[in-house]
Prior knowledge:
The chain contains one helix and 32 strands. By secondary structure, it is mostly beta strands. It has a domain at 70-217: Methylamine Dehydrogenase, Chain H. The strands form eight sheets. The protein has a four-stranded antiparallel sheet with strand order 3-2-1-32, with no helix packed on it. It has a four-stranded antiparallel sheet with strand order 4-5-6-7, with no helix packed on it. It is globular and about 55 Å long.
Amino acid sequence: xxxxKLWGFWSIALITLILTITVFLNLHSPGTPAAQKxxxxxxxxxxxxxxxxxxxxxxxxxxASARRELAPNIDVSYTVVWSPKGDRLAFVxxxxxxxxxxxxxxxxxxxxxxxxxxxxxxxxxxxxxxxKLVFARSCDGFTSxxxxxxxxxxxxxxxxxxxxxxxxxEVGGQPAxxxxxxxxxxxxxxxxxxxxxxxxxxxxxxxGSAMTKLTQTTGEYTSGGSKLVWSPDRTKIAFLSGTYPQxxxxxxxxxGTNLKxxxxxxxxxxxxxxxxWSPDSSQIACYQGxxxxxxxxxxxxWAIDINSPSAKNLTQKPSKYDLISWSPDGxxxxxxxxxxxxxxxxxxxxATSQLNxxxxxxxxxxxxxxxxxxxxxxxxxxxxxxxxxxxxxxxxNWxxxxxxRLTEYKDLNAxxxxxxx
Length: 421
């Protein structure tokens, strides 16, 4: 009798345990509604509408469902940026204006109305509260006899009246203006700005206050098309210094301390002058070519540990690489390899250097943009379909499965893919 009671007790305990585990797994499995929240991508598509050809802004789920046009009456230019909360988008319209719009297409607001200028370019960053914008406008003066300008603005996103000019500095011309000799480079949180003035690197707050000279020795900090690149944690700035193309990779703390030469190689050849921070701000990926290879045909992808510093040749196969993009978890780097019209898509493991070719069923062609989803599970990329004279947007899983085309046949060209945070 006692044995029977004990067996009954343990049977009930076992059933309770099984039910508890089942409920827990159901709540935390990929099949739950929370885990199935769709990944959303914003992008720009060029379309012909009657006699008019215009770029429009869209969002779409990663499975190509729920496509939505957000600004149907605006010719969207480029520079599409999600707010940190993922509830709003900022973008450039008509090459001159800045707009914001809610993720559902409501609340379309013009924040800035600009005039046309030569080679206009914008950089936009949201403040962490997703309510305030900072943007820099470049009007090219580097290739003209007349000066151009670099302008910095902030906006409380309430409309044009809420946008304020912080700085407007002349650049270039003959004789060259010396107020500024680079563009404004915004920190990831939009709260600080770096630039080159009088052949030194400076920074200031987005409101124009606390201008600080970071470097103490004049140098060619933006020659050859190089940029000042903020680390994701906003504590450091990476840049190239030296006479092009024998430039070296440097970092400096955002307070002006700890200037480091990370490469220290007089034979270093720079072709594709871009530096790419890892998400944890501990490494910089870049291209390095063989001596004399000014066309970038014999370059490799290197990862530089900024704390050692030590450099690792990840690819070890000289070729023509492009479009480096770190996964947000820092484990993989996506990139394209090949000539501009005959490129293939790869990932490489940053720790083991293991290569994996993606989208193998697509014929090699031009790949112009790459974007990782925030969970590092998917890659969006624009692919030039030579046969159809069309650029399409695709998404693929990190392991090469699940290739899906997101654009429609009426989309003539796709660009600016950006995943919702």
